Amino acid sequence: MTTTAIHLLLLTDLVADLPVAVRLQRLVGSLRAHFGCEAVALLKLDGEHLRPVAMAGLASDALGRRFAVADHPRLAAILQRRGVLCFHHDSSLPDPYDGLIAERAGEPLPVHDCMGMALDLEGERWGVITLDALQVGTFNGQAQRDLSELACAIEAAVRVTRLETEIRALRLSGGAMLADAQAPREEHDFVGQSSAIMHLLHELQVVADSELPVLLLGETGVGKELCAHRLHRLSRRAGKPLIHVNCAALPESLAESELFGHVRGAFSGAVSDRPGRFEAAEGGTLFLDEVGELPLSIQAKLLRTLQNGEIQRLGADRPRRVNVRVIAATNRSLREHVRDGSFRADLYHRLSVYPVPIPPLRERGNDVLLLAGGFLELNRARLGLRSLRLSAAAENALCHYRWPGNVRELEHVISRAALKAVIRGADRKDIVTLETDMLDLDALEAPAGANASLPAPAACGAPAAPLLSMHQIVEASQRQAIRQALVLHQDNWAAAARQLGLDASNLHKLARRVGLKNT
Q: What pLDDT, in 10s, does the model give residues 185-239?
């Protein structure tokens, strides 16, 4: 393919109505074909890290990795340079993709060609494009000139993609997402491309600016705290405090003082006035994690605050006005606690004005490998390893495990396996490959029958060979939509049917057909 031909191809994609991910993936695929190389990666600069946004020819988990610029001298050199930088085939600088080239997965990169170029948008450094070829001499002078000539087209594709993202964000949230679209991600932000996580992020974008109380629902380890941080960051209160309260860790005797504060002399040891968490969150957001653990006595006072916007310090004579948005989270069924009397029904309805169910990891398909990639890179840097990767069998095992502990469990599994590899004598200068036996997934499985009600994990791996039939995929999507509608409308089937655009009787029939109802 000539330089003129690839220019035309890239320009054609610029004017085509393509999803963001597809446009960037076509970009790196076209570059890989033009230069005849093994791998191309497009990485965005987020603070001190480079985050892959599209790649071709690298291991499947590489898209979830975060490359610390300080740890990767080749990437740092490309970032600092203006124009194309080509590394000599016997360069002593470590390659960030060592062991990650798909055609040589797990093997040390032999003597090879590598070049890259920094990308700028509106006068600021946006990120880099990198290319790796196993055949020495691939990136000769002409190839370097070609890449330099393509710089404008590559930056144009990135610019159009960013504009489309910002426009979509503006339409969704009236401007609340614009700042987030441009700002660096937090260190522990969401990683994933599954439809389940995309739907969740869309919901969070829409509700963030509404000022409504939000109840985050999900199993342990799914990322409820990340959701709370994202809601705050996208809201009008982003410049004000976000105060996190772990309700499960509050002793009943101190819970009232912690939340609402106290005055001097209110109890033994109260030697001065002390504001509570509500006052600390003034103008911002209060995140009540594990809200189902609050004692009934505190629930009544919390309800009054949500109703009237007032708090009363322990021992005080007069209430105080507060301007705080409350986001609550629980891994329990608050409806069941309402039925057994351990949670107030009126407080439940106040907190769950907009409930947001967070999908468990087993329903997120290939996100398992993207998340694993992030944890692999984190542990590689932490343990001072040259490269850390998963074997194909280990990837397959991760994809088919049920993950009762969700993302938190995955992080612990990868960290433990990396430590185990070092303990077994792995050389830090070699490429360390984690095998299935190091993951100890069988030992982590729940007792027989404990997970019988859990759905099978979503398939992940090569997209060309799906493990589910189209009928199964459609039924899984229908189940997810029905569950979300029921959670949103607090198990009101008629309201859920209206939201889904179905007749109530047809919704019941559909629920029985997809296995959500027995009768």
A: 444 578 888 989 989 998 998 899 888 999 999 999 999 999 999 999 999 999 9
- 93-128 core/surface letters (b: 16 or more CB in 10 A; e: else): eebbbbbbbeebbbeebeebbbbbbbbeeeeeebbb
Q: What is the largest CA-CA distance in the chain?
A: 82
Helix then strand count (H, E) for the chain reads 21, 15
Q: Are 371 and 61 in contact (CB under 8 A)?
A: no
Q: Are 290 and 219 in contact, with CB atoms under 8 Å apart?
A: no
Single pTM value for the model: 0.78
336-345 confidence digits (pLDDT tens): 999 999 999 9
The whole-angstrom separation of Cα 444 and Cα 367 is: 20
3-state secondary structure of 101: strand
| DSSP-assigned states of every residue in 428-439 | TTSEEEE-HHHH
- By C-alpha distance, which of 348, 429, 437 is closest to 391? 437
pLDDT digits (tens, 9 = 90+) for 316-367: 889 999 999 999 999 988 999 999 999 999 999 999 999 999 999 999 999 9
Q: Where are the beta strands (DSSP E) in 220-291?
A: 242-246, 285-289
Name residue 479's amino acid.
R
**Cα separation values, 34 from 53, 130, 161, 171, Å:** 20, 14, 22, 37
DSSP state of 274: B
